[in-house]
Design brief:
Number of strands: 2
Strand content: under 5%
Structural class: mainly alpha
Radius of gyration: 19 Å
Order of helices and strands: HEEHHHHHH
Strand order of the largest sheet: 1-2
Distance between the termini: 29 Å
Bound molecules: zinc ion
Shape: elongated
Largest sheet: 2 strands, antiparallel
Length: 178
Amino acid sequence: MSWCPICYQEWQATGSVIYEPLFWSLAVVKVCSLHHCLLAEVCPYCHKNDLFLRWHSRLGYCSQCQMWLGSLPDNSHNNLKNIAEQELEVLLWISKSVGELIAATPSMASAITKQDLAKAFKAHINVVSSGNKAEFARQLQLPKNTVWLWCNGRNLPQLDTLVQICHRLNRSLIEFIT
Ligand SMILES: [Zn+2]
Ligand SMILES: [Zn+2]
């Protein structure tokens, strides 16, 4: 589990209901796009990093030591100053794109299927390389066989792979799928 300590802090300060944004749990999301900070993965108190959400754990609190995981005024959080600007741009783009997809998914009526993605891949391959799968794979530095399996709906790309592809195509996840 990862979290943004500043989000927790703000939610507590404003009395909002604290929820666990689904997208923090996705390994592909590394930064908070609101606060431009790295998501925390290790409890600052007990230094455990396998804080899986348990049914009895309180959101915003460490499931191991029960300490509050929001940032404290004197707590320097992980800032992004040490990350190269280009890398930061990619990380923020990924967070935003995944966040948008999750926000939109309930309205997409049904979960995205292999067939939906196969259709999306075919459509993008038509645009990028006039339907040439090998050329598409070469341009995006992907294994040819893998692209073939995706196009046939035999296999689903991992979310992080899909996000990287979308970033290279300059399409958000939603734009890619719909
Ligand atoms: Zn945040
Ligand atoms: Zn802890």
